[in-house]
Design brief:
The complex is a heterodimer. Chain A has nine helices and no strands. Chain A is mainly α. The relative contact order of chain A is 0.09. Classes of the chains: A mainly alpha, B mainly alpha.
């Protein structure tokens, strides 16, 4: 219902601003949590959210409505998050003590309120190779279908399934150690 | 195993917090994006400089240079020494014209010595 209204508003230049405002009100929070789980740190999520909506505003006049509004902005947000992850991974992966550096980064976020077990799990997820981490997060948290993920990431469904399988096994190892199996 | 992991999903998500009133504050910033972007677009617009006065100046200058060049580089007689050209021109003049000129000079302000010198000059030719 809201999507239909947004679409009608953004089609006309005279009501496009109103359409954008409705878009922000409707999807801001949902989009934030999607980005937050992708990039983990609150400040990073805040920046990515801002950049996402800037891109949405700039591209709004060219949006033809071929896909659903949320699918479209979700794709922009995901791409922005992936760009951010690539940049930050480059910085952190050069650290000889990658795991500790990641753990410290997560703990340093004042808006991370997880216990020791959660910290370990998050660290394990963040430690995954970039592709595996992306696939894991999109599947595990977002429950995205492989077909949609394939289109989004430009990777075959088979390769995505393999990545998810490897990622789950690595996170599982951490979980088993945590549970003292 | 995925089922085991799913048990932890809610916990993992629950550990992520946001500052108080974050979404309300953020909404204000996000709603301001169009204003800021429009402002940036306006600032980015190139300053319009009227070109016609410059074009006019340059056109007039170019026309003057072309005119001067045309007269200076005119092909006829350009290889001839200017003094030779003057002498040839004088030779072409009718003797009566010269005499009339000299007489006028004598009557209207010229003196006799000048007339005599001119006549001598004419005689020399």
């Amino acid at each position: 219902m809201e999507d239909q209204r947004i679409l009608e508003l953004i089609k006309k230049p005279s009501t496009r601003l109103e359409g954008f405002n409705l878009l922000v009100e409707t999807y801001q929070e949902r989009l934030y949590w999607h980005i937050r789980k992708m990039v983990l740190n609150h400040d990073d999520a805040d920046d990515v959210l801002q950049n996402t909506f800037i891109k949405v505003w700039k591209a709004l006049e060219n949006f033809r409505g071929d896909s659903k509004i949320y699918t479209w902005i979700y794709r922009i947000a995901t791409n922005e998050s992936l760009s951010h992850i690539q940049k930050s991974k480059r910085t952190y992966s050069s650290d000889p003590n990658f795991e500790t550096a990641l753990s410290t980064k997560i703990q340093d976020d004042p808006y991370f309120d997880g216990d020791a077990a959660q910290l370990k799990l998050w660290t394990a997820i963040e430690q995954l190779p970039e592709k595996q981490m992306t696939v894991f997060k999109l599947k595990y948290f977002e429950e995205m279908k492989y077909d949609d993920m394939s289109e989004l990431l430009g990777t075959s469904v088979g390769a995505l399934k393999a990545s998810y399988h490897h990622a789950v096994n690595k996170v599982k190892d951490v979980l088993l150690k945590q549970l003292n199996y | 195993m995925s089922e085991d992991l799913n048990k932890y999903k809610k916990d993992l998500e629950a550990g992520l917090k946001v500052p108080e009133a974050y979404f309300a504050e953020k909404k204000k910033l996000l709603l301001a994006i169009p204003d800021n972007e429009i402002k940036v677009e306006v600032d980015k617009k190139p300053k319009v400089i009227r070109l016609w006065p410059k074009v006019l100046t340059w056109s007039l200058s170019a026309a003057a240079v072309i005119s001067i060049a045309f007269f200076l580089l005119k092909p006829s007689d350009t290889n001839v020494d200017p003094f030779v050209r003057l002498e040839a021109h004088l030779n072409e003049m009718d003797k009566e014209q010269i005499e009339d000129y000299l007489m006028n000079e004598y009557i209207y302000g010229g003196d006799e010595s000048l007339l005599l010198s001119e006549v001598e000059f004419e005689d020399l030719n």
